[in-house]
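FW: tagging you since you asked about this chain on Friday. Here's the raw sequence from the shared folder, copied in full. Didn't touch anything.
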Amino acid sequence: MTSAVASPGTKTASTLQENASPEKFQLMLMMALTLVTGVVDAVGYLALDRVFTGNMTGNVVILAMALAGAAYLPALGPLVALGAFLLGSAVAGFTLQSSPKGWNRRVTLLLTAGCIALTGTAAVSLIVEDVGRQSIGVIVAAVIAMHMGSQALIARHLGVRDMTTVVITSTMTSLAGESLVGKQRPRLFNRRLGAVLAMFAGAAIGAILLQTHFSVPIGLGIAITAAVTVLGSRRWH
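HL: got it, structure written out here
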């Protein structure tokens, strides 16, 4: 008679196989949000008077140079974007502070609110001609930055390793200093490189789509964020 009891090694392999799929799924969702950051940063820098809506490091540097007297650099846009990003992070932090780690209804609510906010900016661009050259462009940048601040806090709450979705400097540092020259076998192709490539691809796509109309790359950001929201709420766990 054949024993129905599986060996410990078989159980371990089965468990790893079951756990690998959710982890990969979660990683792909965070990659998608990282791509969205690249898209909206391209829109902000190219169409909203050189304002980064996701990468706040860039805004700090631009603001500092502008205040130091560097010519042709904006000060108001980066300053407002910085404040809006912090506000978005604070609101998301307050919303999620009492909820358990991982995806929950509050995460879904925050990302849904972000989709609505991005939809509003796209609508404004359809009404106001060349929105980036109008005073309302600063408000548009602030709304996008506020959503990206919320997204950054959501990424921290979800806790997918190496996936901040809004900045890749630390990711590149880990890629070079740990993945390539660490104690373990060097690895180039991993999630860290994937995050860098996602940001790169998003910025390139955003720049290309911006040649058609401001609302087109924003529309792509809305579609991807909405897809992540639906998939995450249904299958994160």
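FW: Residues 1-19 have pLDDT under 50 and may be disordered.
HL: agreed, and The radius of gyration is 20 Å.
FW: great, closing this out.
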